[in-house]
């Protein structure tokens, strides 16, 4: 029997919560998604106009739809997560973090051992974690070993075997690290009390252990056993010192998971903080690669399910920066102020730092990949035909209409290429006329590149709105380059991007790297142009003052400035000193000009 056409499959989808799967013509899975209402969600892919190019590409490839109906949206969320991990579909978010994490195991045995492991064996043992590094695990285990004497041997300490003297105490007993349960030197009840205290410490609850040690110290002190009291006091100090290193939030906040997200065009970064007894006992951030245009809400939903499964969290409350729909038995809180708000902000700060670190690492490890990603993003964001590897930006400078100049800055692969920067004195335009000045410099720049056979840019940016852009386009048209080089204008006020023959500007998201690079180009062109303009005005002002004196020419001005370095010193110079440089007659003219009174 032939598979039904897509139209038929869409019509027969149920209005129930569930998970849907898209397949291509080769039966390869493209995408897995969840929905409250399967019919509405799946149909929207085929009826809406998609702004995202990637979604459009995926929809064109879909040839078959499969679905699984579940009882609730929570079940759909869990099933979606499991199917994504199993099939790794091409268009689904990819979690970049698939390491095996260490756990602390309390072994299911008589006189349980406590040790680190990466393997979870379903034998009834207790596993605490996972922890994000072995360093944390070792620090915690060193703390536990310093507080409680535990066995490290792997003997089967069954009651009958101990009674029959099967084992002898080892070196650990003689070193004082073990109480010798293998020879019945320690009661099982006493050992299990220690294990219960260790459980609490691993969970982040130091209160019971501290109280227990304080009681013991008091008893030893009352019995005049001061050495034993001192030994217990040292343990209390160790425990308090370790506890103080935990970030204390608020003792009333306990058994809570905190999540936050920051994202850019290609990735989402989700931070997870676990709070127990008022202290942060775990912090972990994951990177999620977007495949379509997933929102922060969608990414966070997926991340929460994944992280809670991975870290075996059963907290009944989660704090988030914004509301999402989650499991019915978990309370979602979006704090507005106070300690709860601060902890969400701390989580967000961790996510942002992680994103910055990833960017820095990427630039060091694989700079080409970083550049390629930005260039591809700019091509898509600015609707260009090719990647803008070579960009040139123009800016006019004229303060109060005087000394009009222009600057051209060049970026190659998203970075300034300062050796290619160019300055222009406006030659053909009288007075302050930004439009005519822009036309002149664009024309001069590309006429020269054409004459010298130099490479042309893929993108030209003019600082200004429609008027400056039209002037730039006119210059390109005169040179026969219209349509061969992309040209856009950026207006300062609202960061509007204008295209030739299009009255509606483009507004880029303020967070996009594309807009940041355009702003950097614009600001650099402005800085370079203003510096050139100021230097030119200063020279003109300087020359004008000296050359305006009758009988003093350009060569005399140069000689004077070489010797005296500034106009101020020339004014203050004596007639004798001036005569030594320019002769008696010119010295007298200068001296009398500045000493008329």
Account of the protein in words:
It is a single chain. By secondary structure, the chain is α+β, with helices and mostly antiparallel strands. It is built from 20 helices and 20 strands. The protein has helices spanning 6-11, 38-47, 53-61, 73-87, 134-147, 159-163, 171-174, 188-203, 207-222, 226-245, 296-310, 338-365, 367-381, 434-452, 466-479, 513-547, 554-564, 567-572, 575-582, 584-594, and strands at 18-23, 29-35, 64-69, 94-95, 103-106, 114-117, 126-128, 256-263, 267-276, 279-289, 317-319, 331-333, 390-399, 402-412, 415-416, 422-425, 459-463, 486-491, 496-499, 502-506. The strands form four sheets. Strands 13, 14, 15, 16, 17, 18, 19 and 20 form an eight-stranded mixed beta sheet that branches. Helix 9 (207-222) runs antiparallel to helix 10 (226-245), helix 14 runs parallel beside helix 15 (466-479) and helix 19 crosses helix 20 (584-594). It is flat. It starts with 5 loop residues before the first helix and ends with a helix. 28% of the residues are buried. The mean pLDDT is 79. It is found in: Cytoplasm. It comes from Autumnicola psychrophila. This is UvrABC system protein C.
